[in-house]
Amino acid sequence: MERLRFIIKRFALLIVMLFGVATIVFVLTKLVPGDSAVANLSQRSLSDPKIVEAYKVKHGLDQPVIIQYFIHIKNVFKLDLGTSMRTNQSILYELKRCFPATIELATLAILLSTIFGIFFGIISAMKRNSIVDQIVRAISVLGVSIPSFWFALIMLYVFYYKLQILPGPGRLSASFSAPVAVTGFYMIDSLIEGDFLKFIDALKHLILPASVLAAFTMGLITRTTRSNLLDVMSTDYIRTAKAKGLSKVSVIVSHALGNALIPVLTVIGLGFGNLLGGMVLVETIFNWPGLGQFAYNSVKSLDYPGIIGVSLLIALNYMLINTVIDILYGTIDPRVRCK
Amino acid sequence: MKKKVIVLLLTFAMVFIVAGCSSKDNNEGASESVVVIAMGSGFSTLDPGFMYEQNPTLVANACYETLFKFIDGSDEPQTSLAESYTFSDDGLALTIVLKEEATFASGNPVTSEDVKFSLNRTKNLKGNPSFIADTIKSIECPDESTVVINLTGQDSAILSKLGYASCSILDSKVVKENGGTDAEDANTTDTAQVYLDATSAGSGMYVLKSYTPDEEIILEKNENYWGTTTNVDKYIIKLQGDANTQMMGLSSGDIDIALNLTDDTIIELEGKENVKVQNESTKTVGFLMMNEDEKIGGPVANNKVQKAISYAIDYKGIQTICGTGSITPESIIQVGFMGSKGEKDVSTATDLVKAKELLKEAGYEDGFDIDLEMSELDMEGVPLLDLAQIVKEDLSEININVNIVQRDWVAGYGDDYRDGKMGMTIIYWGIDYNDPNVQLVFLPGQQVGLRANWKEKGYEDITKKYNDILAETDSSKRSQLLVEVQDMIEEDSPFVMLAQASCHIGYNSKLTGVNFSDTYRVDVTEINIQ
C-alpha cells in the first residue's frame, strides 16, 4: 500500500515536471537565435515574401509568441504535439516511427553493457591489483573515453568490410522488407510475422551499433561495480560470511553483490536514459532511423515542434527511468523502502 | 535463483554472438532484377509539390513523368508526356499535345486536366518549388489531350522548368481522393502529402512501394507502364549518405550504386573488378561575392580590386579541395549548359603580378584588411570554410589580410546575405532547374546580383540582353545571347566563380546506363542489368 502511494505520488509529480519541461523547452527554442523559415525554405523561396508569409501562417509563426505558447501548452495536454515544419507529418507520428528503433537499439546496448559491465566489475574486484584487474580497468577506461563515431567506423571496417561476419548499416538487409509495423520493434514484428530469418537478420544488424553504444556504459558499470564491491567486501558482515567458511564466489554472489549493485542501478538507469536521447552519431553512421537522427534533423532545420516533441519524450524517459530505479531500490534494499 | 538469472543472461548473450557471427547475408541486391542504391537523405518528402532537394528527384523521375525530360545527359529538354508543342507568335502561350497512350499506374489516362491540376497544385501549395510556376498565368484544357499554358511573360526556360520534378504530372483523380487540391488556398487545405509520401500517383516506370524516412525507399515496377521498360524490377534505395559505409557496401556487393562517394573512398575502390567509378562535375557552383556598395564592401566594392582578387586566387587549389572532377567555369554559366564560356584555364588564371598592378591602380598598393563572412554550409560535402581558408591564403600573397568571420546560416547569415548586407562571402548556388537561365540571377538587378548590391542602374544594356534571352526560344540563338551577356559583365562582375562541385558515383559493373545527372542524380529509367 505504501509502495502504491509512492508510485502514485511519483506519477503526479511527473505531470507537473512535464509541464515545466514543456515551458522551458518552448522558451529555449524561442530564445535561440534563428529563423525556421530560413532553415526550411530555399534561397529562392526566401526571396518571395508570399511564400515566406504562407510558411509562417501554416506553422503558426505569424502569431505573437505568448499566443504560440498557450497553443503549445494546450496541445501538449491534449497529447497533440503539432506538425513537423520539416516533414509536415504529425510529431506524434514521427516519434512513434523513430522511438521503437531507438528503444530496440538502446535496450540491447544496455543489456550488453550491464551483463559485461557487472561481469568485468566482479572479475576485477575479485582479482584486485592482478594483471586481470589491470586489463579490465584498461578496457573500462577505453570504453568510457573512446569516441563513439570513430569506434563505430572501426567496428564497421573490421567486422563488416574486412571480416564480413556482421551486416552493415541499416535495420535489415536489402533482401528483407520491413515487417508490418505492430510494435515498431523489428525483432518482435518479424516474430509476429512468423519470419524467423528476418528476426535473425534484425538481430544481427543490432549487434554492431549496440556494441558501440554499450562500450561507454559498460565502462562506467565495470568501474562502479568494482569499486562498490571492494567497499562491501571490506565490511564486517562479509568478514563474518568468510569466517563461516563460505567460498569466495558464494560470498560475492550471495552476500556482497546485492548491496554493491544499488549504485550500479543508478548508472544503468542514467545510461539507458542517455542512450535513448543521445546517440545521434551512431545512428547516423549505422543509418539507424531513430530518435537521435530525428532530433538532429529537427535542430538543424529549427523544427520547433520536432525539438519540443523530442525534448518532452527524452524528459519523460528520464523521469520514468528514475521512478523505476527508485522502486527497484526498494526491492533490492528493504531499508530504502522503509525510509 | 540468482545463479539461474546469470546463466540465463549469459546464454542470451551467447545467442547474440553466435547469431551475429554466422555466415554473411544472402543479399537480394545481388540477384537478377533488384538494384540497391545508397544515397544521402536530407529531404523530408516525396510529394512532387514540395520537392526541391536534389536527391528525391531520383524517385520522382522513377515514379512520375513530366511533359519534357532531359534524356541521355542532353542539356536540352525532349518531349516526354508531351507529344508535340508550339509557342504562339508572341511567345506568351505554349500549346502542348499529350501522348494519347500515356496512362497512370492506376490505369487512368493522362489528360490535360491532370496537367492543369498538377501545375496549379505546385504553384498554390506555396512551397519551396512553387517558383517554378511563377511565369504560368493560367492553364486551359481545350480537350483531353491538349493543354494551353498562358505565360505572364516570355520565358525561354519554360520547357526546362516543365521537366523539373515538381512539375511531375499527378493522377488528379487519385490525389483529389486523398486530400489533394489545386485551389488557390492549397497551402492550407491540401492534405495529400501524407498519401504521396507513402505511395505514388504518377505514370512513371516505377511505383513507390514504401518510404521510411532516413532509412529506405522501395520502388517496384509499374505493371501498367505504358512505355518501354528496363529489366530492373525493383529498386531498394538505402538512405545512407556516409561515404565510408557506401564504399564498404559497394565493395561487399550489398549495394549496387553509391551516389555519395568522396575522393578518399574512391581510392579504396581502385582495382575492384566489379566496381566502376564516375567522377563528374555538377552544376552546383561555389563563388566569391563582393559587395558593390562601398559602405558595406569597403575596398572590395572597387572593380579593380575585384579583378585583382580574381587574379590572385589559386583555382587549382580550390579544385583540389572540391575533389576529382571539379572544374572552374570561365563565367557565370557552368560548363555543361548551353551558352557556357567553357572551363577556366587554371594554369594561367592566377597572375599575382597583374593582381598587384590592379591593386596599385585602385590605390591599395599596401593591401588592406577585410572580413570574409562565412556560414557553416557545405557544397556537395565540401565545407565552404575550407574554400575560405584557401582564399585567405591566396589573398595574403597580394597583401590582403582576410579575417574569416563565422556565422550561423539560420541565425543571421542567411538574412544578411539575401539583404545585400555582406561585404565579402563565399557561398554556393545550386541550380533550381536544368536551364542556363537560372544563372541569369547573377546579372545586375537580378536576384543574386542584388545580394551584392549590383543594381540595374548603369547596366540597362545588360537588362535588355537579359530580356532578349528570356524571349528567345531558339536554342542556338539563345546560346549566342548567353555568351554575349557574359562578355558584357566580364569587367564589372562582383562575382568570382571558384569551382563547380564534383560528384563521385560508384556502381556495380553488372549495370549499364548509370550516369550522373544534375536533374535526376542518376536516371533509373535508363539502367539495365547485364
Can you give keywords for this protein?
heterodimer, A: 339 residues, mainly alpha, 2 domains, 16 helices, B: 530 residues, alpha+beta, Dipeptide-binding Protein, domain 3, 19 helices
Brief rundown of the structure:
The complex is a heterodimer of chains A (339) and B (530). Chain A is mostly helical and 339 residues long.
List the helices and strands and how they pair.
The complex is a heterodimer of chains A (339) and B (530).
Chain A: H1 2-31, H2 36-40, H3 43-46, H4 49-58, H5 65-77, H6 91-126, H7 131-145, H8 148-162, H9 186-193, H10 196-233, H11 236-243, H12 248-277, H13 280-285, H14 291-300, H15 304-332, H16 334-338
Chain B: H1 2-20, E1 34-39, H2 57-63, E2 68-69, E3 78-79, E4 82-87, E5 93-98, H3 112-124, E6 136-143, E7 146-151, H4 158-161, H5 172-177, H6 186-189, H7 193-198, E8 206-212, E9 216-221, E10 234-239, H8 243-252, E11 257-261, H9 263-269, E12 275-290, H10 294-297, H11 303-312, H12 315-322, H13 346-349, H14 352-361, E13 368-374, E14 378-379, E15 382-383, H15 384-396, E16 400-406, H16 409-418, E17 424-429, H17 447-451, H18 460-471, H19 475-489, E18 495-508, E19 511-512, E20 516-517, E21 521-522, E22 528-529
Parallel strand pairs in B: 1-10, 1-11, 13-16
Antiparallel strand pairs in B: 2-3, 4-5, 5-7, 6-7, 8-9, 9-10, 11-18, 12-17, 12-18, 14-15, 19-22, 20-21
Helix pairs in contact in B: 8-9, 11-14, 12-15, 18-19
Keywords (chain A): Cell membrane, Membrane, Transmembrane, Transmembrane helix, Transport
Membrane topology (chain A): Multi-pass membrane protein
Transmembrane segments (chain A): 12-32, 105-126, 138-160, 202-221, 260-286, 306-329
